[in-house]
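COMPLEX REQUEST
Ligand: 4'-deoxy-4'-aminopyridoxal-5'-phosphate
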Amino acid sequence: MIDYSSVLNQRIQAVAPSGIRKFFDILEDMPDAISLGIGEPDFVTPWHIRNAGIRSLEKGRTKYTPNAGLSELRRQIALYLSRHFQLTYDPNGQIIVTVGGSEGLDLALRCCIEPGDEVIIPTPSFVCYGPLTAMSLGKPVYVETKVEDEFRLTPEALKAAITPRTKALVLPYPCNPTGGIMTRKDLEAIAEVLEGTNILVISDEIYAELTYGEDQHVSIAQIPGMYERTILVNGFSKAYSMTGWRMGYICGPRELIGQIVKLHQYGIMSAPTMSQYAAIEAMQYGDEDIAAMREEYNGRRRFLLDGLRSIGLECFEPKGAFYMFPSIQSTGMDSDTFCMKFLEAEHVAVIPGSAFGPGGEGFVRACYAASMGNLATALERMEHFIKHR
Ligand code: PMP
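STATUS: Structure written out below.
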């Protein structure tokens, strides 16, 4: 008999599986359930983008690409970042095409963490930053953001979390699960704290295209003095509804990207070829698709926000991504109990805020990248649940 616990790496065994997963396991056996759980657009990838993937297969483009990705895709990414965010990255040496934003985050964290290094992670936020840090022998330092600050990272909270061991700051905006964003002014205040330090910023901008108010997304790399220290992570999953294609990219200073490419080269080789051809089409001709989907999400956002408030739940108005993060404190339940009972009683999945780190307890996350019909039914069922539980 083999003793697996002594064979397996202790750090991996110590990491808890994602708190989101168990709800999906239950959902599998509940075919009539409505899921507002998964953070995934409900649209099929626009046809012209799918077609570009299909055409690449028809032409027999089934081989590896260069490690950093097709040069035409890197060129298109550079053009896109310049067009949308006034950022300049050289396609040769400053951009790597990755397997989703997920690989980009893993690369960005692994490239800089030495054992014991601290990584500051504002929470509630996406579930992977802490475990990826810990698996690289780093120490996640969670900084709670507050609903009264619209879930922004404040310069005071950042300053208080910095120690001589701080290696990097993860900036997860627009934020999953809160929908919070950081304006240019907010980012300038963060930049002021970072100036003069040796701290890297890993900026997860996967929801950059999904902001709804007057404040459009600003990248921290646009703030003077920040470009040199920022690793920008982005991807195609959310903006173009391309989750299954597994397409993302990271950009940064040449000195960093030149090293990071080795992690990608030895671990992945190159991102899927067919997906890269589809991504070229998305970058070249996808701006209208983004605008149309954003408009649709915005309608759903208003509908769900009004609906949740009208059934008596306090809810922060999210300005980005596609999640609502209502408080369920008035029900007297903790978020895990609320979600489990709601799923069992009403067959609707939402995710406990506690799954997203410190500060998430007392809230649940509902994804509004779902049809209006499903959102309306989910709201009716939630009202019923709150009244009759
Ligand atoms: N960052 C955030 C904040 C996310 O919500 C997600 C997906 N849920 C990702 C990164 C990773 O997305 P992907 O790997 O599909 O690009």
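REMARKS: The two ends are 49 Å apart (CA to CA). The longest strand covers residues 118-123.
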